[in-house]
TrEMBL record:
This is Extracellular calcium-sensing receptor-like. Residues 1-26 form the signal peptide. GO terms for cellular component: plasma membrane. It comes from Solea senegalensis (Senegalese sole). Belongs to the G-protein coupled receptor 3 family. It is found in: Cell membrane.
């Protein structure tokens, strides 16, 4: 596939997914709002449309190809252009149009409802198909206005499509979220039958799972049990392969000889290899599950190699492909049997197709151009305006009057309608579902509150309910309904490729496979019609082995295996690696393959086998365990190879006899009751998968893969070695103990390494707080380039700790490169597979590996084992080739001799014969070293686990057993599954003191030894035990650990140093979570621990310290007596009070003088007192706010100033009254302004303010408040006014009196000089009003204590203004111009004027 096209598909998919989610999500979230949204751009799609009450969408392949837009993003990418008209795809689209037209004319279906359609071209491109689907579900308008409620029928109620499984998967994944039904006519992938993933997907073509079943029915019919399978590398082929692998055996009794994946594109080498496999295979039947493009390329190679004599089975995608039905290919493909989509007949379709005519007045660029493009393709013309140069080149213009019948085209061929028939059924399925929905009786509907759907407000999810229940019969007689997975009742035609004598070809129908709701699957074949492309004109025979006659059972062949046996009442099996290597047999299949030969004797593996023999012998001698029962054993060599291990396991469970005569009932104990083994996780997985099917217990002593803990996959698997999950946990405990949070991981490329890596990646962070700097897979074999790259990663990494979860062979190859690059200073952590390997403990490697910490299997002690090993003797009279040769091979390896008859040339070369009398103790061998028994100890425990389980089973009391009807197992008829029951409950303690039992996953209680590689001063090496991990508890003796660093201390391995208190960890983008920056906590937040993930906010009354590591009480702020501003204001207030007292004293002293007595001296005294109160009330605004000060400050301020302004107002009124009295006829005005009236007026005006203050204090009293809004790090103590209205009324009343006084004084400003005090009042009121007008904005904009300061300043400024303006001139006269303080002087001024 073109790479750019793939890239464009992914880009389009992502973009369209995002747009679809955004559009629908925004539509949902806006259900209570009205707004409009503008689409990014309008997609111009090839389409065909018809209006109706309900619109159905359709997606069809009208073009084969599309252009790739420029994706350099140096300019706006252009939309792709489609080309290469697909006549068949257009016919499918027209079939949908015909079906809708037919439904609209049907008076019995959807009465009074007109269906319309919107059909789009997908151009075989996922991105374009996605765009089309998006357009169908969201509409094509560029701007959409969303009302308060989005009501009405959506753009389409359902979609017929897609034609491809891949596109259907992608589109249905999104449409399923919003329950928009998608009914496919050609998507066959069985994966689409998952209603959890695709809840709104239906199809009228059967699933590939049914197609696979149909093919299996054919194979079964002709007895073809040995077949090859070729598949395409996509969902279509892969899912079919899965179905074949799972169903072929159970359903058809057959096997796959091979499964090969056909390459995309032209890959001659791979095709050559695949055809070579086909040619060499004995399977004569080949199933091909791919499309015709794969077949075209494959057949080129088949013809080149001339591979004939094969019976081909075709999937529906190439069964009817004309391009393959050529005289050139029919010698190879003749006789092919294929599965084909059901052929149907659609009366009237051809007449409908003949009526097609283009839209002459439609602009092709705006989405309704499908018919016009078809017309141009058929008649090779162009509609006006034609492309540039078209007319000049002699091209014709389309008139629209051309006659389709005059052109030879397959468009009008309705004799083989297969996908079209599925389209027809899909449209009718939607129509019948809609009809059922609209016929719902109100109050008896299926939706909430028994409601029904309404035509004006149809929802796609409502249609889904009825679509799942639809059931009708087509005019062709086929029943259409959907099962719970959205699949239709499957029916296939069986096609046969006939090669006629005249060389012509014909594809004929020879049968069908049909499933009904009641009778299941049924294959019908007319064998007389089938053409066989073989000499006898009969179906070929394709079996791996011929049938066994009655009285025998099938056995592939007798496996000659290295073994060791002992008879007994009950036999236990064992699988051990006795040899390291095996030869690869010749697999050219030109002769019978020979069995592989094992070589490279493994002393340790043999010692493990002997440990099992010793344990069985010890149990037989124990009168308390299995009394009156003798155990035997059959031990086999797996040669470190899966194939041989599998053969050995099959030999153990089925026996070695070549032929078994069956009696009436097969009774008795099976060949083995349980198996000890295998030593490898990979082999244990494979073997236990099969043994688990028959519940044969398998107890491994060395398979550690955590995957084996899956009880569903391995129900009869147990082990006496801990799982790698526990080993990984043990390593994590070590990392956590030393604070190593940054480590590298090297793994082997098998289950052992891969599952360990998964555990590290999932558990290292949560359990140990660590991260992996890198994870690298060590190659099998010697790969210098890859090893060089891996070691280079290790060298450049800042991680000083390296965990290696691999085998000694990997480490040997790795260390060569480590030494070459001289990478030192690393702390190695070894898995149990190489933690005690001697070959790595050399002076050459210890500068690099010294100090290694490793996980080791628990070391145990087995008393008597060494003496048993010394008694090992060969069987001099046994033929080594008959499967009991294990001891003899050991003997030959140890003493370098051969038993008679020796190999050719052995004697001539002067080598010795084995006598069997050689003494093992005289040979230096690790066979007798029982000081470090680890795998052997696990073997020992495995044998005892099986023995104790068998003992518990045989001690069952009749009538109280665990099996059906409380029965017990019988020694004469023991079954392996019965032993599994008891094995799960086994619980005993070894002589070494270790408890042995199994958990629900078959895992033993985990315990590991921690080993340390010590590099002694004399150059020798030693591996010592420095601790253990038991369950999840780590115990370490750190004083014993040897560290291979100059400091003799454990290294530090972290990605980022710890964050101190006062900071938090912030992960570095794109790096593991252990790599972080230390970010200081923001103001108001602290962290008081190391490596804090988050900073915590301080309590409301606290703030962070400068170091951000603890909270300190917030500074409190208020207008204090101790700060300069408070001192200044206090001083000024007291000064003003003092001046008032002085002036008052001066006026009292001179109370009899004219200047004092003028204009009511009593009011002057009262005014001075009120001014003094004004000065004093400002002190209430200074100091820590308390409840009484908050309540008193504004009340005292308001009353004091009203008293002051009231006196001024009365004085002003008196001045005006005196002036009026001086005029003729005005004497009577003075009677209203006598002393009593003046006092009363002042009292009344002041009482009003007192009433205002009282109401304010009672209703919403000012209270102290801690304000944290102004400053995060300070608490501002302030008085909140409680009622803004009360405060406003208080100020407003003062302002009203002040303005009134000002106006009256202003009116009296030009009176004679004898009444000059009016000017003073005017000036004083002007100052007063100016101060308080400026106060309001200043007060509002001043935060905290400065608001109080502004108010105090306003009080003092206005008070000083009144004091100076009113009393300054009088004090001047009294003190400095006493000659003017006479009545004559005062009156005289008026005279001179």
């Amino acid at each position: 596939m073109n790479q750019s096209k793939v890239m464009r598909g992914f880009l389009d998919t992502g973009l369209l997914l995002l747009m679809l989610f955004s559009y629908i999500s925004s539509a949902v979230s806006s259900s209570h709002y009205s707004y409009s949204c503008q689409s990014h751009e309008q997609f111009h799609l090839n389409g065909m449309h018809k209006n109706g009450d309900v619109i159905l969408g359709g997606l069809f392949k009208i073009h084969f190809f599309s252009t790739d837009p420029d994706l350099s993003f140096t300019s706006q990418p252009q939309l792709p252009t489609c080309y290469g008209v697909d006549i068949i795809g257009f016919r499918m689209a027209q079939t949908m149009a015909f079906a809708i037209d037919e439904i609209n004319r049907n008076s019995n279906l959807l009465l009074n409802v007109t269906l319309g359609y919107s059909l789009y071209d997908n151009c075989l491109d996922l991105g374009i198909a996605y765009r089309a689907a998006l357009t169908l579900v969201s509409g094509q308008e560029e701007q959409v206005t969303l009302k308060e409620n989005c009501v009405g029928t959506p753009p389409v109620l359902g979609i017929v499509g897609e034609s491809s499984s891949g596109r259907s998967i992608a589109i249905s994944t999104v449409l399923g979220l919003y329950r928009v039904p998608l009914v496919s006519y050609f998507a066959t992938c069985s994966c689409l039958s998952d209603p959890q993933k695709f809840p709104s997907f239906f199809r009228t073509i059967p699933s590939d799972a049914f197609q696979v079943n149909a093919i299996i029915q054919i194979l079964k019919r002709f007895g073809w049990t040995w077949v090859g399978l070729l598949i395409s590398d996509e969902d279509y082929g892969v899912h079919a392969a899965r179905s074949f692998h799972s169903d072929l055996g159970p359903a058809g009794g057959g096997c796959l000889a091979y499964t090969e994946i056909l390459p995309w594109g032209d890959d001659p080498a791979e095709l050559r290899r695949i055809v070579d496999v086909m040619r060499k295979s004995t399977a004569r039947v080949v199933i091909v599950f791919s499309n015709k493009s794969h077949m075209i390329k494959l057949m080129k190679e088949v013809v080149r190699q001339n591979v004939t004599g094969l019976q081909w089975i075709a999937s529906e995608s190439w069964t009817t492909a004309d391009v393959l039905q050529t005289p050139h290919l029919m010698p190879y493909l003749g006789g092919t049997l294929g599965i084909a989509i059901r052929r149907g007949e659609i009366p009237g379709l051809r007449d409908f197709l003949l009526q097609i005519h283009p839209v002459l007045h439609h602009n092709n660029t705006f989405g309704n151009s499908m018919v016009n493009q078809f017309w141009e393709h058929i008649f090779q013309c162009r509609f006006a305006p034609p492309p540039a140069g078209w007319v000049e080149a002699g091209g014709e213009l389309c008139t629209g009057q051309e006659v389709i019948e005059n052109v030879e085209t397959e468009f009008l061929d309705d004799s083989n309608l297969r996908p079209e028939y599925n389209v027809y059924k899909a449209v009718y399925a939607l129509a019948y579902a809609l009809d059922d929905m609209l016929q719902c009786e109100p109050g008896r509907g299926p939706f909430s509150n028994n409601t029904c759907a309404h035509l004006q407000r149809l929802e796609p999810w409502q249609l889904l309910y009825y679509l799942a229940k639809v059931n009708f019969t087509t005019t062709f007689g086929d029943e259409v309904s959907f099962d719970e997975n959205g699949d239709t009742l499957p029916i296939y035609d069986i096609m046969n490729w006939v090669w006629l004598p005249d060389g012509r070809t014909m594809v004929q129908r020879v049968g069908e496979v049909k499933r009904s709701a009641f009778k299941g699957d049924k294959l019908t074949l007319d064998e007389d019609k089938i053409f066989w492309n073989f000499e006898p004109k009969q179906p070929p025979r394709s079996v791996c082995s011929e049938s066994c006659p009655p009285g025998t059972r099938m056995l592939q062949e007798q496996f000659i295996l290295n073994g060791m046996h002992k008879t007994g009442d009950v036999i236990l099996g064992g699988l051990f690696a006795i040899n390291f290597f095996s030869t690869d047999p010749d697999l050219t299949f030109i002769s019978e393959p020979q069995l592989p030969t094992c070589y490279g004797f493994n002393i340790i593996g043999f010692r493990q086998a002997q440990t099992m023999a010793f344990a069985v012998d010890e149990i037989n001698k124990n009168s308390n365990l299995l009394p009156n029962v003798t155990l035997g054993y059959s031990l086999y060599d797996n040669c470190n190879r899966l194939g041989i291990g599998f053969r050995a396991a099959l030999a153990l469970v089925s026996g070695q006899e070549e032929q078994v005569t069956s009696e009436e009932n097969c009774v008795g104990t099976p060949p083995v009751l349980g198996i000890v083994g295998d030593s490898s996780s990979r082999r244990s997985i494979a073997i236990s998968t099969v043994l688990g099917l028959y519940r044969v217990p398998m107890v491994s002593y060395f398979a550690t893969c955590s995957c084996l803990s899956d009880r569903h996959k391995f129900p009869s698997f147990f082990r006496t070695i801990p799982s790698d999950a526990f080993q990984v946990n043990a390593m994590i405990q070590i990392l956590k103990h030393f604070g190593w949070t940054w480590a590298g991981l090297l793994i082997s490329d098998d289950d052992y390494g891969v599952h360990a890596a998964r555990s590290f990646h999932s558990d290292l962070g949560p359990a140990g707080g660590g991260c992996l700097a890198y994870t690298e897979i060590l190659p099998w074999g010697d790969d210098p380039a890859e090893l060089r790259r891996i070691v280079d990663v290790m060298r450049k990494s800042t991680a000083r700790v390296v965990i290696v979860f691999a085998y000694e062979s990997h480490m040997i190859n790795l260390m060569k490169e480590v030494v070459r690059q001289n990478v030192t200073g690393l702390q190695w952590i070894a898995s149990e597979a190489w933690s005690s390997v001697d070959v790595l403990q050399t002076p050459h490697l210890m500068p690099y590996l010294g100090g290694t910490l490793g996980i080791a299997i628990r070391r145990g002690e087995i008393p008597g084992l060494r003496d048993f090993l010394l008694q090992t003797r060969p069987d001099l009279h046994h033929n080594n080739k008959e499967g009991n040769s294990m001891v003899n091979q050991f003997w030959e390896h140890t003493f370098q001799c051969r038993f008679a008859p020796p190999p050719a040339g052995w004697v001539e070369s002067g080598r010795e014969f084995c006598t069997g009398q050689e003494v093992i103790e005289n040979v230096e061998t690790e066979f007798l070293d029982v000081s470090n028994l680890r795998p052997e100890y696990n073997v020992y425990k495995a044998v005892y686990a099986l023995a104790y389980a068998l003992d518990d089973m045989l001690q069952c009391e009749p009538g109280r057993g665990p099996f059906i009807n409380n029965t017990c197992a019988q020694l004469q008829r023991l079954e392996p599954w019965q032993l599994v029951h008891y094995l799960e409950k086994v619980n005993f303690t070894t002589t070494f003191g270790d408890l042995v039992s199994f958990d629900e996953n078959g895992d033993t209680l985990p315990i590991y030894d921690i080993m340390n590689w010590v590099w002694l001063p004399d150059g020798r090496t030693k591996v010592q035990r420095v601790g253990e991990v038991k369950r999840s508890e780590l115990t370490l003796d750190e004083d014993k650990i040897f560290w291979n660093f100059e400091s003799k201390q454990p290294p530090r391995s972290v990605c980022s140093e710890s964050c101190p208190p006062g900071t938090r960890m912030a992960r570095k983008k794109g790096e593991p979570e252990c790599c972080f920056d230390c970010v200081p906590c923001s103001e108001g937040k602290i962290s008081n621990t190391t490596d804090s993930m988050e900073c915590t906010s301080c309590p409301e009354d606290f703030w962070s310290s400068p170091q951000r590591d603890h909270c300190v009480p917030k500074k409190t702020e208020f207008l204090s007596y101790h700060e300069p501003l408070g001192i200044c204001l206090t001083t000024t207030s007291l000064l003003g009070t003092f001046i008032c007292v002085v002036v008052l004293g001066l006026f009292i002293h001179h109370h009899s003088t004219p200047i004092v007595r003028a204009n009511n001296s009593e009011l002057s005294f009262l005014l001075l007192v009120s001014l003094k109160l004004c000065f004093l009330c400002s002190l209430l605004f200074i100091g820590r706010p308390r409840l009484w000060t908050c309540q008193l400050r504004h009340a005292a301020f308001g009353i004091s100033f009203v008293l002051c302004v009231s006196c001024i107002l009365v004085k002003t009124m008196v001045v005006l009254a005196v002036f009026r009295a001086s005029k003729p006829g005005g004497e009577s005005s003075l009677k209203w302004f006598g002393a009593l009236q003046q006092r009363g007026t002042v009292l009344v005006l002041t009482s009003v303010q007192a009433a205002i203050c009282t109401a304010w204090l009672v209703s919403a009293s000012p209270v102290p408040h801690k304000n944290t809004q102004y400053h995060n790090d300070k608490i501002v103590y302030e008085c909140i006014v409680g009622s803004v209205i009360g405060f406003a009324v208080l100020l407003g009343y003062i302002g009203l009196l002040a303005v009134l006084s000002f106006l009256l004084a202003f009116l009296a400003r030009n009176l004679p000089d004898s009444f000059n005090e009016a000017k003073l009042i005017t000036f004083s009121m002007l100052i007063f009003c100016a101060v308080w007008v400026a106060f309001v904005p200043a007060y509002i904009s001043s935060p905290g204590k400065y608001a109080d300061a502004v108010e105090v300043f306003a009080i003092l400024a206005s008070s000083f203004g009144l004091l100076v303006a009113l009393f300054g001139p009088k004090c001047y006269i009294i003190l400095l111009r006493p000659e003017r303080n006479t009545k004559k002087a005062i009156m005289g001024r008026g005279t001179t004027k």
